Amino acid sequence: MNITTLSRRAVILGAAASLGGCSALSSLNEAARPLDTYDLSPAAGSSAGRRSGQTLVVALPNAPASVATDRIMVKPSAAAVTYLPEARWSDELPALVQSLLVRSIAGTGRMGYVGPAQAGPVPDLALLSRIDAFQVEITGETVTAKIDISLSLLRDRDQSVIKTAAFQDEAVATDDSPAAIVAAFQAMLDTLLPQMATWSAGG
Prior knowledge:
Number of strands: 8
Mean pLDDT: 86
Structural class: alpha/beta
CATH architecture: 3-Layer(aba) Sandwich
Number of domains: 1
Helix content: 25-40%
Oligomer: single chain
CATH superfamily: ABC-type transport auxiliary lipoprotein component
């Protein structure tokens, strides 16, 4: 599949979604066809620095409805949103990002406990996050993956904000295949996750 094909398919899929009966039939056909599933890997932050016995819970990230899905979002233009037709994430994106943050922060070895907000001991700290971008954008012949995630660290006992930061990056995929696009996302995360983990752990 070349860039032109990806762009054309994205526009066609977006147009089909606006048609009543056709949309329902298209959705049924898409649901019946298995999609290749892709996972992303954590990347631990720095282990250097002060170690703490504090407990940290990582809340499920907030995200727009277009992002909060297991599909890989594509923006063929500024106003259009569609998804890679042959691929999906291993989980809905907010849950996947939450897991990546938990494992990356825990990998620093600098905190007493790091886990999701749904379980674990009473926390000292809470990490809130917002996914503003986690998508593929098409400009001419170029396929660019983009990530924009904001973090806020709170003191749990009074919900006061300790600090906030935004982490952004973009990477051009080597081609328009799902494998190349996922590799571009992973390359960004290999840089961003250590930064976010070190920041969250107090570095």
